[in-house]
Amino acid sequence: MRDRHWDMIRAKVGSDFKIDAALYLQHIYDLNLNKYKEDVEEITDQARQEAKMEKTLNMLQERWVDVKFEFRAHKDSGVHMIGLDGDDFDLLENDQVAVTAMTSSRYLSTFEEKINYWQKGLAAINEVVVTCGEVQRSWSFLESLFIHSEEVKKELPNESIKFITIDKDVKAVLTDSYKV
Q1: Is residue 150 a contact partner of residue 137, using CB atoms and an 8 Å limit?
Q2: Which of 4, 117, 150, 155 yields a CA-CA distance of 20 to 30 A from 60?
Q3: Res. 136: pLDDT tops 90
Q4: What is the CATH topology of the domain spanning 1-52?
Q5: In the predicted model, what is the mean pLDDT of the chain?
Q6: Which numeric CATH code is attached to 67-179?
Q7: What's the CA gap between 145 and 86, in Å, rounded?
Q8: Among residues 75, 68, 15, which one has the least CA distance to residue 40?
Q9: SS3 labels along the chain
């Protein structure tokens, strides 16, 4: 229990007791907490739920302080495709579910700002990873057609020329990402 929870109990029982080495079981007994059983249970339940939230938020901070992307070579082009390890992507999805569950807690208010931060942050990471994956899949497919297929170059010469610029841009972005 945090000080805020003890303050709630102090307010309920109307006593300004201190939690320290001088507090004995007799002092707690003298507070007649049994008269406030439901209130005390509610406060301790809140403390438990908030402790779970706090633990999850601390774990998120440790886990996502740095997003570790993986790079895999694309064919023999010297270009590396960017992505998130499959296990890390699963963790990302699980963490998003955990944060969403916290938003529906009745004890949200204590950590609302942090929870909103993580909800937005994890969604942004997910969006970047998914978008990068989609762009790279499309580029890789189109590269096979417009760069490596002489037949497509003959059939679609204008599109092939346009794609050369796109190909250079994508390769530059991927190369810069790999260097960084």
Answers
A1: no
A2: 4
A3: yes
A4: Helix Hairpins (1.10.287)
A5: 94
A6: 1.20.140.100
A7: 28
A8: 15
A9: CCHHHHHHHHHHHCCCCCCCCCCCHHHHHHCCHHHHHHHHHHHHHHHHHHHHHHHHHHHHHHHHCCCCEEEEEECCCCEEEEEECHHHHHHHHHHHHHHHHHHCCCCHHHHHHHHHHHHHHHHHHHHHHHHHHHHHHHHHHHHHHHCCCHHHHHHCHHHHHHHHHHHHHHHHHHHHHHHC
Cβ 105 vs Cβ 47: under 8 Å? no
Burial class (CB in 10 A: 0-12, 13-18, 19+), 17: middle
CA atoms within 13 A on the CB side of 35: 9
> What share of the chain has pLDDT > 90, as a percent?
82
51-87 pLDDT, tens digit per residue, is 999 999 999 999 999 888 899 999 888 899 999 999 9
Distance, CA of 127 to chain centre? 11
Domain ranges in the chain are: 1-52, 67-179
Residue with tokens 């002092």: 27
CB 95 within 8 A of CB 61: no
Instruction: Centre a 10 Å sphere on the Cβ of residue 108 and count the other Cβ atoms it contains.
Output: 15
